[in-house]
Design a protein that fits this description.
Layout lengths: L4 E5 L4 H13 L2 E8 L6 H4 L1 H9 L3 H6 E8 L1 H6 L25 H16 L3 E3 L15 H15 L4 E3 L7 H23 L11 E2 L2 E2 L5 H16 L1
Parallel strand pairs: 1-2, 1-4, 2-3, 4-5
Antiparallel strand pairs: 6-7
Length: about 230
Amino acid sequence: MSSASALVLFSAGQDSATCLAWALERFERVETIGFDYGQRHAIELAQRAPLRGAIAGLNSNWAERLGGDQLVDVSGYGALAESALTSDRAIEIAASGLPTTFVPGRNLVFLTVAAAHGYRRGIDTLVGGMCETDYSGYPDCRRETLDAQQQALALGLDRPIRVETPLMHLTKADTWALAHALGGDALVTTIVEYSHTCYEGDRIHRHDWGYGCNACPACDLRAKGWQEWRGRG
């Protein structure tokens, strides 16, 4: 087990792309893991490899530190945890008060699987893009939830486990700023061009902040964050 290694939960979204760059700056060895949980639009899975490769290509040190990738099929879980991200349902606020894009327990499942993979790979640090500043009310994005999960994983595996969340207290504008601090215009351009956030799977319409429908909550959040960040300059 080496504290010099990290496993990044990598979905090909803006947040996980920024987290990958963050980890590559801090750890000697970085691997990635992604999940096919039956999401409606496979485009985010298709973008993982191009985005990973583009980020590694920005910096020779990053390219040297970036190790393997693992894609895990948890589509059976996705079918059980049906949501607007895994089935053809309207994106709206449900009777529970949470948006229908909430996939119950998704981060907890992902972290458990990632920890098991990390255990075999000798990695004790998991890195995720969870954020409670701009989040949509998802209870599994809260640091309090992740602290409890971290403790449970450490107990269950009988070894120290760290769940790093570098974006936890950042707004989307702050996340764009962090990407720029990590890799300059080149990383920002890479995230704009290769990452995917849109809930509708739109890779046709290109905006200053990237591809998307410009109407779903994910696009709205990303676009507003971009505009706020650009306005700071």
